[in-house]
Amino acid sequence: MGGPDSPSSPSAVATTTVCVTGATGYIGSWLVRSLLQRGYSVHATARDTGKALSLLSTFSGNSRLKIFRSDLNEEGSFDEAVKGCLAVFHVAASMEFNVSVEENIDDHVQSKITEPAVKGTLNVLQACSRAGSVKRIIFTSSISTITAKDDKGESRELVDESSVTPITEVWNTKPKGWVYVLSKLLTEEKAFQFAKERGIHLVSIIPPTVAGPFLTTSVPTSVQVLLSSITGDPNLYPILVSVHSRLGSIPLVHIEDICNAHIFLMEQAGAEGRFICSVGSSTMPQLTDLLSLEYPSFSSKRFAEGFPDAVPPVISSMRLTNLGFKFKYGVRDIIEQSVACCIKNDFLKCPITEGIHN
């Protein structure tokens, strides 16, 4: 998608329409705003158009925004939304991490979660194929599809896009958040398979834990996971520990950077395959030390032990940066802005107020 007709050229941006699925989510809403700021026309999809209108209509450039009701579970639901679009950002996904059923759990997950997730992704891709105008699809994957462990269970020194979590291992071990991991692995696999069969140019971006400020009315799950050592959330903290166990650290990216990377990959003619988008990583003790600097009432001392002291594997974003992408925010910025936004939105108590009450 390079050259004079590339959407990155100023003359083309004004006449380029793109589609964003899952537009009321954390990444989706920020991506819609970023695209409008750059001059693109945007078709935003959501199951709840009222919620979407309330959130997205406040953005600058909203005269170039159209909102469509679409549901991953409804075949043909995305046809109108992708019609006339040059590119589609498929961000929408289920955020189920675990299941509560105890019997026939594999059958339940397959029939109720993974199969509908795959079908939903194929619904979007089939709409793109029928539209005829779509030249590229950017699929939002997840760092949950990546592992630092090799076939022998040893830690790799370098983790890249080829370090894929084996699907059979997820089924067999069922780590914390395994349902989400499985869903992401299967949907991405089927998406690439379908795109290859239909001659659609599909690129996958692999976000780690995405954090920073947010536009949504509720605190995004990824931000809650990042701050779970502060909040002590019994459901989300184990997921943070599971990420650390699988990768040797917690990789991070700022919300603005991950959205800029989505757009960058749409605009780059040389973008092929999968791209990890992580600015850096912190071990659990490093992460909690940074959190305690931004939120002084939180003590990181109890996290100093119980985590490996070895040098963690390097989680590489070289495929992305070698194309020319540049990160704007570092790990410290991400932590600082996440804490500040959560205090502002009353998810975390103001440290001064908390100190007075204590």
Provide structural commentary.
The protein is globular, with a radius of gyration of 20 Å. It is built from 15 helices and 12 strands. With 358 residues, the protein is α/β, with parallel strands linked by helices. Helix 2 (26-37) packs across helix 11 (255-267) and helix 6 packs antiparallel against helix 7 (178-198). It has helices spanning 10-13, 26-37, 49-56, 79-82, 105-131, 167-173, 178-198, 221-226, 228-231, 237-247, 255-267, 284-294, 318-321, 331-344, 351-357, and strands at 17-20, 41-46, 65-69, 87-90, 136-140, 158-159, 201-206, 209-211, 250-254, 273-276, 280-282, 314-315. Helices cover 43% and strands 14% of the residues. The strands form 3 sheets. The chain has a 7-stranded parallel β-sheet, sandwiched between helices.
